[in-house]
Protein 1
Amino acid sequence: MPNDTPAKEKTGLPPEWEEWCQRGSHSVGHRRRAVQRCMNEKKEVRGYYSDLLLDPTLPPTHSLYPSAEHTTFPKQNSEMVVESRIVNDMKSHLSEAEFWQAIEHLFVVGVAQKKIPELRQRHDSWSPARHYDKKG
């Protein structure tokens, strides 16, 4: 008897994430594993580095659109995770240690220049004013 269960029901991923896994240049399996690595118990997918809530229904030009992120160099697709497009782009040229050093440096500079209060709270709903569509 053939199995009539659609693949997306077997993966445990919400439908919008299963659709995201079907797009892009990396294999569906690698993308599914990347999403599962970043999914919490509420079925929310959060950026691996940023912990920002990711939404695969955003337009691909949105800065918070999910992006497949390689955590290894040389790149190993089996070790991918999911991150926002803007953070992935920022990390592309850096090792993980260099990335965190850059973030730490920016935070220290921001506090010193009084752009960031010393006791800063998390901003789970942060989003830049402009995105990649160049309309902002």
Protein 2
Amino acid sequence: MQDWTTDMVEDRLKEASSVMRKLPAPRIQGFFNTWPSMMVEFSDLVGQTPEHMRLPPPSAAAISRMEAAMTWLSWLEPEDVKFVWARAEGARWKEICWKFGIARSTASLRWAYCLNLITWRLNRRPLSSRWSRRYLLERAKILSSNF
């Protein structure tokens, strides 16, 4: 298998976010409807607002990939998990900076660090707890330039 890249990790996290949006809402167990479904005619629908279109359900393979990507988030700090998930959901950088109270350059470095940390762990490279964020980013940059 080929090595993981930060682009591959980013794509997988975005896919996991979209799969989460497609999953049905949780339902309360124990409640059900005994009424028969009504036959609605066209004249009954005139003047009503149309129902919202629902996204098609995700495939089983997409759900499996989503579950695998969700386990990757356990390698990050809780604040970084919220940050990465907000970005994976497609939040703009400006919104993320306001929400987390950081500058745009700090947000960019944090995003790169989180993706590189996940990539580093997926490629089964040794990771020291004494490494700083900057050191990991420099090591990842050196490794990516060698290939």
